[in-house]
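Deviations from the work plan: none for this task. Representative record:
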Amino acid sequence: MRKLAVLGAGGLVLAVGAAIIAERPTQAQQSPAKPDSLTAWVLAQGDSAALQGPRQPVLFRHDIHAGANKIPCQYCHYTVAESSEPGIPSMQTCMGCHLVIGGTDSTHKQEIKKLRDAFAKNQPIEWVRVHTVARHAHFPHMRHIKAMGPNACQTCHGDVARMAQVFKVNNINNMGFCVTCHLQRKVNRDCSLCHY
Amino acid sequence: MSDTTPREGIDRRRFLTVLGVTGAGAAVVSGCSTERIEKLVPYLVQSEDQIPGVATWYASTCTECPAGCGLHVRTREGRAVKLEGNPEHPINAGRLCAHGQSALQGLYNPGRVAGPMARQADGSFKEITWDEAIAMLVQRLQGASGKLAVLNGAGRGSFTDLLKAWTEAQGGRHVRYQPFSYEPLREASRQTFGIAEVPRYDFGRANYIVSFGADFLDSGWISPVEHQRGFAQAHGYADGAMARHVMFAPRMSLTAMNADEWHASKPGTEAAIALAMANVLLTERSGNPPDANALRGTLAAYTPEKAQQETGVGAEVIRRVAREFASNRPGLAVAGGIASQHRGAVQTAAAVNLLNYVAGNVGDTVRFGADLDGGDAYGETLALQGALDRGEIQVILVHEANPVYSLPRATGFEAKFRKAAFKISTSLYLDETARLCDLLLPNHHALERWDDARPRRGVNGLLQPVMEPVFRTMATGDVLLRAAQKVGGALAHFNATGWEAYLKSQWLKVLGTEEAWRTALQHGGTYGETPTTPVRLANGTVVTPYRAAAFDGAPEGESFYLAPVPSVLGDGRFANRPWLLELSDPVTKITWHSWVEIHPDVARRLDLQEGEIVRLTSPHGSIEAPVYVYPGIHPEVVGVPLGHGHTSYGAFATGRGVNPLDLLDGADTSGFLPYFATRVILTKTRRWKQVAKTEGTTRQLGRGIADAMTLAQAKQGLSPALAAAGEAAGPHEENPQPEVEAIGGWRERQLQKRQKGEYANEHPMWGMVIDLARCTGCSACVTACYAENNIPFVGEDEILRGRELTWMRIERYWEGGEDGEPLEARVVPMLCQHCDAAPCEPVCPVYAAYHTADGLNGQVYNRCVGTRYCANNCPYKVRYFNWYAYSKAAFPEPLNLQLNPDVTVRARGIMEKCTFCIQRIRGAQNRARLEDRPLRDGDVITACAQACPSDAIVFGDMNDGSSRVTRLKADPRGYHILEDLNVRPAVTYLAKVLNRTEA
């Protein structure tokens, strides 16, 4: 009896979690350029801590870069098609544009100034990592881009082009998440494909 | 039972799932979480030749010994993680020995001197800045007024040229010093042919090899990888032919283990055999070189019978070997090396030169003109010692040498060295010599600096920095040039802007264009033909009258000859590398400490057993080490390995083992340092130390692990089983009918399994072939496996508990050696056999051990819960359990930087084993997929196969009919170890072939 109760409680938690996950896509299905009113309000306060996902040292707006400005993912994540690592853009890549682009409003200007100051001091910005594959698993990004095309990123990472601050949409360390896709697409799901 | 049958209760998997859920719940309650905040730090400026996640390779040159092999350095995210041979290089052709592999542990060694240091008044060292350090150097150089000496252990190259010119411009004395020099060979060549040069041996062409105490396969003699490649080519069985290798030496070394015949000769007498053989050739054979025929009279006195008296080797053996040597052209006789460097070493080498000349091998398998690098004569070192003793040296700089350790204590070098007022060391490590110095100017490691090497004519190797320096070090070339600018005067003309610019200018003088320089850099140097100078017998006395080598120390009787044993630690410079300390000695299988080899008869007589500590005493000192009873040593000899017994060389080496050089007489003036020259008295201490060896049962006991057959049997195309049964016997005995049916049914079920799910698709079938006729047991593969697969060392205590953790090991078994039969060694590289019907798989309760569709025996670390059932059920004992978090202790900073990012670092409580380098397989598959092509044979090479200097290991897809592995697997010599267990291993061994005279 007791075991059943424990399982029941677990099931409830799962159900609630599933409901939260299920809600997200509807939230994000608004116009690509403008964040929803809640996000806009949070951003106006100048503190991204209230947004989903870890707070980053510089509020890098994927929704502006990839969303509004339609910069292809691989412009910055330049090694994703050839390496297991997607490639975190160097500071130089950022400065390539931001040498000229200083931002339109005060919050943008403030963040871009952080970038310029850091670059001037030869100091890299230490981003907080959002997605980490467990150390005992190997995920070759390039194989997935090769198989699913250059815009396949959102399959795992969610619609980053609408995120003011990147957050985890899928638990990439839940092996079921990987295996489901491999099953659907009828590709190899041998343990040693990833675990070695 | 079909899958639809309802089961009672729960099966083992569900049981463990429930256990797992409960465990996870408990973890949540106690608030544990695996979520850690990680940072992603971007580059400021992206370097053009680095792609994160993809290896960048640099060509370089190995400087671990003077051989000068070419390197390809694999770097990931700006750090070197693996060294491999450069396939273009004429010396090593893509192969690399254990020393070369372990250079990474020199680079990331925690014992490195972290920056420039000066000695304080209280005797301690204080870190200073480079500007201060160079200012101190300059001040001392200005005050030295010519009383300067430099002891340089670096190989020949632009740096040594610069250092020599820099020293001599100040009126100083420059001495090149290599502990294991080839002085006797050079002197012998001067006596016989009038050319003072170390000969170059072409083992690959030889049809008959006779070694007179020369350990050409043991570590570090002249050009080990090249010798081994050649030896495998000559002595490996192919198309019904192979060379015969005969060895005369007092001890069965790794080289003698690979000989078809080993004859234990009395120490110091090899020359008598060589002269007797030359005599036999001259008297029995026509067509000898005319100038050699003139020696007939001189050599007539050296009969095989006389040689038998001297050496203890039978006259009929000597006569037979001489005849065979004459009829199997071209042959090759070799002498030299540390293990036979007694006072008669020059005489032995000269006699062997003569033998080669009479047999017509000189100019063919023995060539002069390569001008192999060997350092200055030992006399120069002695002269420097004299000058130090007389106080003629004020400032001494020691570069890449550790004479306080590597010269016998009896030379009194340490006391003489202390007499110099100011002592400077550029050593990377705080070794015995650096510890006495006043100023430490640590050099960059060879993988961090620009440099070059000229190991022989025609081969010019380049070194380039493959990564940023790990410590606050500076290339000594830069130190010299910066000091020269400040000192001015005679040094003012050293005005290059830096060491890199200087080196490049030296190369541009030869190459001419920037483009040629870039090409050279890309290929690791420039390689041309090595010239051959024809030689003739010198005028005058070519044959010095034979005299047995003299031995000092205790008188004959109850004393023993002390044989220095070449070990993987070389001259001691490798003793701070845990990979090599833990690497089982190829002969004795002992790790981590010193030992004393004693013949079983002597052990019986003296009532000694393995592990009893004995004291060896000579007039110059005494050492204590545990006994190892070794059937392969002459009864009058005791062997002690070289390279141990450091008093200051980092945490790994210090205080470990004993140094046999402490027993030697250093006051020798024969032009070289005789290492095999002392007799010692052996006393029992009645104390014990368990010998930390990885050797199990020393005999095969009929298990058929290391199979061998005679050359005649191999020519007939017999299988090892038929060869063992004898030619008369029929095929293998028939199985009774029920067994045949059972096996057939089992096979059928296995086949059906293969048609389901993943297995129904087309897959490669990975397999390996190991040719025991080529394998020498050198253990380069073991070190390569350590480097590739992040294998932690476990330490001496854990070895004593039988917990060694080497995914690949070399097993060594003895055959014969009793009742007058010759002693024979067999070696087998043992790794996971990736059995098709693996016994480890069905016993794993969590499916961590399982079979992949491409024929691998997979081991999923994150599933493993450490029951160790698999290891218990493995008949090959190739699964190793990670008892503690070994990797934490094994990779202290900065050694952790050497870890291969493609391989999981295993945690505690996990079973691990050879994966057939699955990371390389997956990497090659990924690359092939990106290039839209199928995998080709040779795309995947495991680390062991890549390193093997003998090319004994071949890896590939057994489903590909044209692959090399499939072709080799069909060889009639092929067999599986423990075949009757029916586990169907993916590793096929090709039986060793013994080329012996049939009685």
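The CA atoms of residues 97 and 112 of chain A lie 11 Å apart.
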